[in-house]
Amino acid sequence: MPSGDPCRIRGVEAKEAKPHSDPRVRTGRWLAVGIGLFLASQFISSVLRIATGADGRDSKFGETAFQEHLGYLIGLNLWVGIGYLLLGLAGWWLLRPLAALPPLSGLPRRWRPAGLVVLGVVASQVVHWYFELRMAWLRPYFLGGDGAVFRLMGIEVDPSGAGHLARWFWLRILPLAAVAAAGLWWWLRLGRRGRVVLATAVVLAAVVPFLGWRPGGSGSPAPADDGRPNVIIIGSDSLRGDRLGYAGYRPGRSDGAAADGVSPRIDAWARDAMVFETCRVPLASTLESGITLMSAMPPRQHGIRHMFPARDAVEAMEARIDPLPEVFSEAGYDTLAIGDWCAGYYEVSRLGFDEVDVSTFDNFRVYLGQIVMMGHHIVPLYFDNGLGYRLFPAIRSSANFVTPDVVTGRVEQRLARQARSGRPFFWHVFYSCNHLPYRSGEPYCRMFGDPDYRGPNAAGVDFDINEFISGTDLEAKWKALPQAEVRQIRALYDGCTRQFDDCFGRLLEALEHQGLADNTIVVLTADHGDDLYEPEVTLGHGLSFNGSDRSYHVPLAIRVPGGGGGRFEESVRLHDIAPTLAGLAGLQPRESWSGVDLSPWLGDPAAARDLPFYGETQFPFIQFRIEGVERPPLAPMDEMVMIDPSYGHQFVLRPEYIDRVIAAKQRCLRTRDWKLVLTPRADGGWHRQLFHTAADPDCRADLASAEPEVAAAMEAALRGWMDDGRERMIEEIFPRGEPANGAATNP
Fold it and tell me: pLDDT for 315-330, tens place per residue?
């Protein structure tokens, strides 16, 4: 055949053209290999970290996870693999333009694949480092650190001046510029059809996060109603009643943003509110207090006396109570409980609410899901957004993701919809702001602390949950903490309070904006406080009655539109709130309620009187020492508690420990000036302590022997309450009047 035969030439050309495919395809392929290698290394290291316990699960629950839930854990890890795939696609789109730069395009053909693979690995690592730095600023508690890197980058804690500009450059402008540059490259590179596809993808990316979104409203006044007031209770877990500005508290630092104190917005609002200076909870633990708040019954009466109740105990409680939300619902109100993981107890019992929008936490499979999500660092780095919440629902239960800001935004949107409906509402908004380990973002976490602090508690309390649940002697460890660390922990707590204050202020503004403020009763309270290294105590809440009982002291302020304010020194209790709100709304109280309606005090301050406090300690994570007392022995939490698969994998106290836990509780009775504590002993008896709190607020001098008549009268009332649950009033305990110190009278 002639050499110029066209068939032969075409055949040769066809064979030669096959290995020389589009170089753009080969470039993208090798770059994808590099990105894939980086992400594969991240996935493997994360799985190994989870499997070897590097993220800290050295407890019996960790053993249970791998013995009984291995398949579930494997499935979760494989599901997270979808996130890695999405990151790979996004990374390829972002980094592909770099492969067209002269240093790589000029490489010899035989070195080009290796160069592209190296580019994919190195560029992916650089992007990953950037997002870690970004996370360390926005959520420092994820990665720790003391902010040194940000000072090198020119980002200052005080969001003003040059530091503010640097923050915007590194955290906002730089990523937007990178995305814009990549988008421009693709736009110029693609043909007409490719540009249509790209434009469609951009539009979908912008629209998908807003699917299901409803407009927030124009802020016009709500439709006319029948005059029934709305009620919104706003609280933060572990918020103490004595560490707010209106209570007289002033933080140690008062410069810059700290100059306004810990609660400037709450303080301004409280000027026109009924402020109850001393409100105590009968049991300082979230679930038990949440039930007390809505049932107007203390735990001794509603029956939930520890935080790990079984299904039958919850059902018995629900049959026993008449919850306040149900009373409002029957009156035509919309009722809603909304919050983050600290409000997750509403998943245990809805307590009469029509709607519950909270994060679940006290569930073992949710706990495992969070271990996996936090073990794969890509999740907090790249999926703390609407897409991530849909793809990985488990992160909605984490305080690290569903932040107070997220909760506030949800409430603002709901208020807009509620304003348009014109229906009255009763809501409970509950935040995790002040809960241990006191983690908050900038600027709060450094607002009140020493700017030169570089210790382990920089972004949150150095708190090992496994030590807490496994019986380690945390009491000795906490007592040995240096004063510098104590000051830092208190500063972290104050920063959390300031964060809650901003959330509280935003909700007040939303009520005003939607025209609801003039017809809404706003209540500030909490489930319990926290000890913060005051005399005789260390950390935690509800674990003892040592010291001045600050972990039982919660704020209570009620602002009634047009009702005026006032301050009441008289002591009240958490279970007095429900009958008070019913009274303010003109609703009838229920016979089961044992709380006192405080609403008459608004019109007649002379009617105010001190109400007795009957209390008990919570689940004994730690039994703090009492000098000269051997406490009843108890196993660590991870031995006493089991996971009940038939109850949604809830943590449940083993039946054999229920009576022992209740019997090991300290009991306390406080009147206006006296405090009696009964501590069970290992031999079955009780150790009695009596304190005159008016002269000895930190309860250091035991007067049980010096004031036997006072002690006997109070012990009779306390033991009566332990037997039948009835709270004897102070005038019943001391018919002739409460005695002064050293002047006890025979009751």
Answer: 999 999 999 999 999 9
